[in-house]
Amino acid sequence: MKRVLLGFPFFLVAFFAGYFLVPEIQTILPNVGKGDQTNSEAAPVVPSADDLLSESPWLTPEFTDVELDEEASKTSMLMELVSNGKVAFCTNEPKKAERKWLGLFKRGERFSLERRSVDFGPVESIDFGNFSSMNFRGSREAVFILSDQGTLRPGPVRTLYLKPNLTHDQLFYDGMELGYSRIFRLDDTDYVIRIAPATLRGGNSASVLLIEQGSRSQIIWFKTFFGSPGDIGELEWVGDLDGDGRLDLQLSHYAQNGGQFESLLFLSSFAKKGRLVGFAAFYSARCRA
């Protein structure tokens, strides 16, 4: 009986508070409790790339109507990446595969381009296609290996940058995002590699990769925005591979359609007139044969 009597005053306070205060709250918040839940149930609005461009001054396109030269992207030189001395080469018939290759080798702080004869192991099938292991001398010291088309000559290679091997301390993908800019000096010449916002021919927003030297500037790669600007890829290697005293570079990225890992090599000796580099070789983790 005492518990009932002690609880009665609290009941009265709660009753009158609810009776007088709820209408006032409904007046201040007219959508609450009146059957109109449109705003609270609506899906969150994700800004488009165009909205981001208009709202963020640093995303204002620096270049417009961008289009890469498709003819310049054609190459006959193959590139294979070496991981812990191992290479998986896409082929159904190893006996017919190219035997003569040029490898970029690293020994201490020295780099060199060296010819190699390659033997192939048995064919193995995995999700990305049929592959055969490439076996050649000094494979554990190789950075990458190129099919020998006679366009490059063996010899010392000046290297300005080589991406460090991933360790347990590097748990993230270190991509080049908008705003990235880095200067590389080869002899007495400075080259700038940077990422800038742009719009492509057709109106899509994209990040573009540029190489600049003095008054010359060239867009060599781009990646379209999907919802928000992301990274365009990673620099793998920078230096002078072809020995002409001008900058060359290797870029890696994950393809947007399919998601496979890809790598591209740009060489100054492959450049068209008035340009700084040309597309020289391509690698894809997905079998292209």
Description of the structure:
With 289 residues, this protein is mainly β. The chain is built from three helices and 18 strands. It has helices spanning 2-28, 38-41, 49-55; strands spanning 63-66, 77-81, 88-90, 100-107, 110-117, 119-126, 129-135, 142-147, 155-156, 158-162, 181-186, 189-200, 205-213, 216-224, 234-240, 248-254, 261-267, 278-284.
Structure, briefly:
By secondary structure, the chain is mainly β. It is built from 3 helices and 18 strands.
Secondary structure class reads: mainly beta
Q: Tell me the number of strands.
A: 18
- Strand fraction equals 35-45%
As a percent range, the share of helical residues equals 10-25%
Mean pLDDT: 78
SSE arrangement:
Layout: H1 2-28, H2 38-41, H3 49-55, E1 63-66, E2 77-81, E3 88-90, E4 100-107, E5 110-117, E6 119-126, E7 129-135, E8 142-147, E9 155-156, E10 158-162, E11 181-186, E12 189-200, E13 205-213, E14 216-224, E15 234-240, E16 248-254, E17 261-267, E18 278-284
Task: Write a concise keyword list for the protein shown above.
mainly beta; ten-stranded mixed β-sheet; five-stranded mixed β-sheet; 3 helices; 18 strands; globular; disordered N terminus
